[in-house]
From TrEMBL:
Keywords: Carbohydrate metabolism, Glycosyltransferase, Pyridoxal phosphate, Transferase
Enzyme class: transferase
Gene3D superfamilies (UniProt xref): Glycogen Phosphorylase B
Pfam families in alphabetical order: Phosphorylase
NCBIfam families: P_ylase
Protein name: Alpha-1,4 glucan phosphorylase
Length: 817
């Protein structure tokens, strides 16, 4: 590997400028004078890749040739956010680049602004995967992220004149995409359908059709680690283009069909919660990327070996299944080992079992994937046989352990009609983890209780985290500077627990004032951003109160909007004198799955409440509501640092962890929240007196379900709640049309599965406490600073360290010379 030179020594701005000039000229064919910021962006990105190339090769070399086990993070989503600034930060090149780009007559921000965000995820789960690969590289742990390069990411959201969500396709690859390298020479063949036949006493799968999985490689530079890992996203291409030539002209169109069908596999990212749509295509996607990734790992770790000793596979790589989406990997690895490499069942099982681990991300039973057996049988007949056999072995094992017949039936992986992917993952892998303490406990007590009873040692917790590089340093440069000033070092960026050192400064009024000034400046920035991007007029002298996350009933955007309407009514009716009202700007951001009717209606309601409230002179300056469309990582990076109060108000027991809550706490927002997900741990760490807690606990929720929940009782008992719901029903927010929100109102009054009405009173009651504190800016900011100081635990570096210790049993590559 002599062509790897030592990772490049610090380069100068002049060298970068030259590289960009060369790239512009020889690859893009434009002079610096002709170049637009978009041209410079592409050239700059390519130059960054060049600069990272040696470290990338070195990392792969050390990974393949050393003894450190690698991590394969299998995830259907990676919600990366923009790349340029992040790559520069992690590689320590920001200053040289700024200077280089300026010397060419451009401004880095203009260049960065032309970058288009890849939306290859729905929300928290995809963003978690992106934070994790950042942390793996930053800790120097060799790793692959494996996923799908969707042609269309999560839809772009717009609102029509009625305030309804309109989805438009996100064709992100229409723009030049300089980060991903398409490597046709490392393609994998992935097959589907057909049947299983017996040949010489052996089962042989004769698939009906195949596609070519082409890897698109993204470099993942670690922060200050000198290591660069790989995010390998698979793109589907027709398998055998040559075949087309055998067709004559008249058959040309039908000959192209298989190609179109093949390329459909990686065409779109499925919106979460749209479970009915495209089931088959979704299973095809899952198998497609997992099969390609497993074969790829064998190619990487046993280069050139036709008969590799795959019993060593668990020493080379450990796979983490990010939710149930990649779980088909378990029978796939069994099939590869038995059918392709000739291992016996028990050896194959032992290898597979040691190689996989499973992260569960939900408590909602409907979100645990269950596939109809006939669908699997049609698409992956050999895998269905293997799953049946796994299930037989599992039942025998349970029986031997003395588990009763009824329980065994309850635990079936394969029921005869369907395959339960969460159960397959729990049995098939070494460890199962939830994503926050409370969630992991509920997995053991409820969702996977039988499994935890039989295999208690498999279960563990890893609380989620977020990367401080993107979500503090890049998103909030002012706070970053202040933290560095306060701590006297910037080492906190790779050791976030150091934030604890800020705690004594909370007693220092001067420091707290500086902290408050950072927030104020961020609010002015966001107001300018919102004006430029959305045409909104936000007043930075009001409290910025934010609720951003996917729209889902369990997250309870409805609770926020009903409380807001009640407040609006109080001001209008004079019950609350305008002088007593703490001025607030409420900001929502949320996409709803296209097929999720009530969620979309909630969006429409929020938009129309915003329209009515913002145009009502009676509440002018007291209450404003804004809903910037198309919530994504970019908007998160702008909005979170500008937020005073964030909302984490899901029904207790429903949000597995949340990561938005962590981003806000780390950026000095105060949180109003329930005892759900990681809120519990945030509150424990920052202190109960620095967190606005309200609402029912998991136990109270359970009891209320058990007693028979009737929402109407709460409506009748609370005149403010009644007034708010009545306003939605009577057409106040629909130009007098009483039908517009009827389904929503009816759901609230008759079902309200997530108990919004039951928590309404507690939620509105805590607002006076919030406002009393906000009226004392110094005290508010002191508490917000204490939140920052005590949230270092929520770094994704800590999450990854926990995975390394509890689940993966590996660590960093040897230090670079
Ligand atoms: C962090 C993040 C999420 C997750 O937010 P939650 O409040 O934890 O649901 C979703 N979308 C984007 C763009 C994010 O950055």
């Amino acid at each position: 590997m002599s062509e790897i030179t030592a990772p490049k020594s610090p380069v100068t701005a002049e060298q970068f400028a030259d590289e960009i000039r060369e790239q512009l000229k020889y690859a893009q064919g434009v002079t610096v004078e002709q170049a637009t910021p978009a041209d410079v962006y592409v050239a700059a990105a390519v130059a960054v890749r060049h600069h990272l190339m040696d470290s990338w090769m070195q990392t792969q070399h050390d990974m393949v040739n050393g003894t450190t086990k690698a991590v394969g993070y299998l995830s259907a989503e990676f919600l990366m956010g923009k790349q340029l600034r992040n790559a520069l930060l992690n590689a320590g090149l920001t200053e040289q680049y700024n200077a280089a780009i300026e010397s060419l007559g451009f401004n880095l921000q203009d260049v960065v602004d032309t970058e288009y965000e890849p939306g290859l995820g729905n929300g928290g789960l995809g963003r978690l995967a992106a934070c994790f690969i950042d942390s793996l590289a930053s800790l120097g742990v060799p790793a692959f992220g494996y996923g799908i390069q969707y042609k269309y990411g999560i839809f772009k959201q717009e609102f029509d004149k009625d305030g309804k969500q309109v989805e438009t396709p996100d064709y992100w690859l229409a723009n030049e995409e300089p980060w991903g390298h398409i490597d046709y020479n490392r393609s994998q063949k992935v097959s589907f359908g057909g049947k299983v036949v017996k040949e010489g006493g052996k089962k042989v799968w004769k698939p009906a059709w195949s596609v070519r999985a082409v890897p698109v490689d993204y470099m993942v530079p670690g922060y200050a680690s000198g290591r660069v890992n790989t995010l390998r996203l698979w793109s589907a291409k027709a398998e055998d283009e040559f075949d087309l030539l055998t067709f004559n002209r008249s058959e040309y169109l039908s000959a192209v069909k298989p190609q179109v069908k093949a390329e459909n596999i990686s065409k779109i990212l499925y919106p979460e919660d749209s479970t009915k749509e495209g089931k088959q295509l979704r299973l095809e996607q899952q198998y497609f990327f997992v099969s390609a990734s497993l074969h790829d790992a064998i190619r990487v770790f046993y280069p050139g070996e036709s008969k590799p000793d795959l019993t060593t596979l668990p020493d080379k790589i450990v796979f983490q299944l990010n939710d149930t989406h990649p779980v088909i990997g378990i029978p796939e690895l069994m099939r590869i080992l038995i059918d392709e490499y000739g291992y016996d069942w028990d050896t194959a099982w032992s290898i597979t079992n040691k190689t996989f681990n499973y992260t569960c991300h939900t408590l909602l039973p409907e979100a645990l994937e269950v596939w109809p057996a006939d669908l699997i049988g049609e698409l992956l007949p050999r895998h269905l046989e293997i799953i049946e056999k796994i299930n037989e072995q599992f039942e025998a094992e349970l029986k031997a352990k003395g588990v009763g017949a009824v329980t065994i039936k309850d635990m079936a992986i394969y029921t005869g009609d369907s395959v339960r992917m969460a159960y397959l993952a729990t049995y098939g892998g070494s460890h199962v983890n939830g994503v926050a303490e409370l969630h992991s406990q509920l997995l053991k007590d409820v969702t996977l209780k039988n499994f935890s009873d039989v295999y208690p040692d498999k279960f563990t917790n890893v609380t989620n985290g977020v990367t401080p590089r993107r979500f503090i340093k890049l998103a909030n440069p002012r706070l970053s500077d202040l933290i560095t000033e306060g701590l006297g070092t910037d080492k906190w960026l790779s050791d976030l627990e150091l934030l604890k050192g800020l705690e004594p400064l909370a007693a220092d009024d001067e420091f707290v004032r500086k902290f408050a000034a950072v927030k104020q400046a961020n609010k002015v920035d966001f107001a300018n951003y919102a004006k430029r991007e959305y045409g909104f007029d936000l007043d930075p002298d009001t409290m910025f109160n934010t609720m951003v996350k996917r729209l889902h009933e369990y997250k309870r955007q409805a609770l926020k909007i009903l409380a807001l309407i009640a407040r609006y009514a109080d001001i209008k009716s004079g019950k609350l004198s305008a002088d007593d009202v703490m001025p607030r700007t409420v900001i929502f951001g949320a996409k709803a799955a296209p097929g999720y009717y009530l969620a979309k209606m909630t969006i429409q309601l929020i938009n129309n409440v915003a329209r009515v409230v913002n145009n009502d002179p009676d509440v002018k300056g007291k209450l404003n509501v804004y809903f910037p469309w198309n919530y994504n990582v970019r908007l998160a990076q702008h909005l979170i640092p500008a937020t005073d109060l964030d909302e984490q108000i899901s029904q207790a027991g429903k949000e597995a962890s949340g990561t938005g809550n962590m981003k806000f706490a780390l950026n000095g927002a105060m949180t109003v929240g329930t005892l759900d997900g990681a809120n519990v741990e945030i509150r424990e760490r920052v202190g109960a007196e620095n967190f606005f807690l309200f609402g029912m606990t998991v136990d109270e929720v359970d009891k209320l379900y058990a007693d028979g929940y009737g929402p109407r009782k709460y409506y009748e008992a609370d005149p403010r709640l009644k007034a708010a719901i009545d306003m939605v029903a009577d057409g106040t927010f629909s130009n007098g049309n009483k039908d517009t929100y009827a389904p929503l109102v009816s759901d609230w009054l008759s079902k309200d599965w997530f108990m919004t009405l039951a928590d309404f009173h507690a939620y509105t009651a805590i607002q006076s406490e919030i406002e009393a504190l906000y009226a004392q800016p110094l005290e508010w900011n002191r508490k917000a600073l204490i939140n920052v100081a005590n949230s270092g635990y929520f770094s994704s570096d800590r999450s990854i360290s926990d995975y390394l210790e509890r689940i993966w049993h590996t660590g960093p590559l040897p230090a670079l010379a």
